[in-house]
Amino acid sequence: MHSITDKAEQALARAEALGEERHRIFIELDAARILERARALDALDADEARALPLFGRLISLKDLVDEAGQRTTAGSQILQKREPASANAAVVDRLLAAGAVPFGRTNMTEFAYSGVGLNPHHGTPGAIHDRAVIPGGSSSGAAMSVARGICDAAICTDTGGSARIPAAINGLYGIKPTAASVSLAGVHPLSTRFDSVGLLAGSLELAMDVLNAIRNEPLPSITTADTPAAPLRFAMAPRQMLSDLAADVAADFDRTLEVILAAGHAVREIDLPEVADAVEGMKMLVSAEARAFYASDMDEIDTRSDPNVVARLHLADDETPESLAKAAAMREKAIEAAGSALAAYDALLSPTIPFAPPRITEVENDFTTWNGRMLSLCSLINLFDGCGVSLPLRRGSETQAATNPESSPATRQAWFGAVMLAGPQGRDERLLRAARRIDRLIATKHFS
């Protein structure tokens, strides 16, 4: 049996073999730190190892998450002047207590402020199926650390889809838990109102194991075997919220609905007007909170940061305290309405993203349009403080995908497709039990 040290050394070698792409995935990869942790785990006896639910799992950390002795820069050159963190984020301490190996600090959109994953400072890693295509964001490096077969899982954040969007693009599982269920202590904020700790993994079972390890209160039932269960009841996102779907995504979603209905589950379209009404206000609230957080650095940000991020930081400059208070009240109304509308359902169904991921150059040429569309579905779940999980539709090994990572017409069409299941605030357990049943169902079907 291979040791954890062997596993870590092989993963480090795999990262280095990527050449320059490695630096677009990892902002920091401290081999000595990683191997020291691996050797400490190898020194445990068998009983001690078995007691650790994440024993030897290599888990990358988005560069928003504090690690004692490491500098947290949020993907920005400006924050490289910060002192190294004096303590671990709560989520890191929980990973360590579960036996995981924190494995590198991953690249991200600067300040976590986009859904497409571009970073002009460190470079943008390409998607697993085509390096010319965006990886999704803001957790771009997190997704690629798993998709490239380096890490078992990744810890990230999700303010408007930053776990679920890159999961959808790269054939991974992405979970956004209810925000209050996982501590954000020691996690650099974008918007404290909308931020959640998120995670990505190559299987739903591992994703749920990681989630249980980092939650404030574990959910033991999500990792136990299913007993014979009644048919599930699903709500479907209202059609007006799905008006921007590309033809291939619409076809995938229709096929998903057919599979679910054929298995005896129920699907009903519902209306969520309070959520739709609060969308524009969410944009202003995020911008205002982020702008306030970076107020002391704004002169430098205005001249040195990603211009696309700078523009978003100034979106709410003309808002008044009264208009922001109104937006906050509309958000609270949306939370209440979603909780009521979804109470009778196991989950809300929609595609994770509305179109196949575009090329990096396309997004660079029209960032605002592509970014807004990319966030349009996932951000609704953050808006009503819900929980969500993205499941891949087409299943294939990372090794097969990575053997032809360069751009070509064939690989451009080979992305995985994804469906999102979501629930209201605090309904993570019910959501994940439904997601596991649907994931197993999808695995038996063919999505051409």
Can you tag this structure with a few keywords?
448 residues; alpha/beta; Amidase signature (AS) enzymes; eleven-stranded mixed sheet; 20 helices; 11 strands
Helix and strand layout, with pairings?
Blueprint: H1 4-16, H2 20-25, E1 26-28, H3 31-42, H4 46-50, E2 58-62, H5 90-97, E3 101-106, H6 140-147, E4 153-157, H7 164-169, E5 173-176, E6 197-201, H8 204-214, E7 233-236, H9 247-262, E8 266-269, H10 273-277, H11 279-293, H12 298-304, H13 307-313, H14 321-341, E9 347-351, H15 360-365, H16 367-375, H17 378-383, E10 387-392, H18 398-402, H19 409-412, E11 418-423, H20 428-443
Parallel strand pairs: 2-3, 2-4, 7-8, 7-9
Antiparallel strand pairs: 1-3, 4-6, 5-6, 5-10, 9-11, 10-11
